[in-house]
Amino acid sequence: MSTLLPPRAGRRCAGALNSLHATLFFSPDLDREFSALGFTDPNAMRLAARSAPMGAVGPGTVAATFYNYDHALLRQHFPAVWDTAAPAAVLDARLRVVDATLRRLLGEETLASAELAEAAELALRAAEACTRHARPLYAANADLPVPEAPHLRFWHASTLLREHRGDGHLAALLDAGLDPVEALVSHTATGKGMSPRWVLSSRGWRRADWEAAAERLRSRGLLGAEGELTAAGVALREEAEERTDRLDSAPYEHLGAAGVERLTELGRGLLVTAAVAGAFPGDLIGKG
Fold first, then answer.
1. pLDDT per residue over 117-148, tens digit each?
2. Is the Cβ–Cβ distance between 202 and 195 less than 8 Å?
3. Omega of the bond prior to 281 within 30 degrees of 0, cis?
4. Minimal CA–CA distance to 13: which of 127, 148, 143?
């Protein structure tokens, strides 16, 4: 069987899995479980949930691995979050959140289906080809045990693939010369990124930071007067995505063309079910 993949096949597959992974961060189950641990700030909950695989890290490590958060915001929460709950307790709570969230969004029939079990095994097979070097968030998650239940196995594998691609994407952003806020502004300008309201509330930046980054992009000829990407801006963003594709090709080549196509089909079906069930805020994506 040929492993030659159609253009952007890995990107399309990763997109569906990344979105399913992200249901964690918009789940009311996260607020409930993390409040029980003693957390009171929603940003602290979500920052702890994603960083816990790395251990009791400080703000510098989180700034480096998350890329687009304001270090000042991170200093407000790290290392204090680990006084509220140790990383091991956060990881246990995170898995409980995933369990409750997927049961609510997908339903018990889907969780027990052969299709979900197949998606989990395909995603885990793809993740066999991920590499740890220079990929800190992937490597930290790869050291965690693989859960037994199919829906948790699927989420775990989706997380591995998401963080593997994300670690490579940071290298692509650096090479493109996009600083954290410029990366956010230019992504939002594509129409596929989070709206400025969501970015500013979750990443810690101020409106002035956003406008200053937009002005820097305009001075480079990447952003137009109305906030739209110029032809050069579109080309730069696409080049960054293509470089990310190249850095992230191994898991999808390992899975093979037929496997990637099937995992994409299954992942998109699950994502549609989750989205219809209210997995994401209606105003999450957009330029406004």
1. 999 999 999 999 999 999 999 999 999 999 99
2. no
3. no
4. 127
Residue 256: CB atoms within 10 A of its CB come to: 17
HEC readout, the chain: CCCCCCCCHHHHHHHHHHHHHHHHHHCHHHHHHHHHHCCCCHHHHHHHHHHHHHCCCCHHHHHHHHCCCCHHHHHHHCCCHHHHCCHHHHHHHHHHHHHHHHHHHHCHHHHCCHHHHHHHHHHHHHHCCCCCCCCHHHHHHHCCCCCCCHHHHHHHHHHHHHHHHHHHHHHHHHHHCCCHHHHHHHHHHCCCCECHHHHHHHHCCCHHHHHHHHHHHHHCCCECCCCCECHHHHHHHHHHHHHHHHHCHHHHHHHCHHHHHHHHHHHHHHHHHHHHCCCCCCCCECCC
Both tokens of residue 211? 């406008």
Closest CA to 79 of 98, 61, 101: 61
- For all residues of the chain together, what is the average pLDDT? 96
Per-residue pLDDT of 17-33, as tens digits, reads 999 999 999 999 999 99
Task: Enter the tokens of residue 181.
Answer: 């806020």
pLDDT tens digits, 42-67: 999 999 999 999 999 999 999 999 99
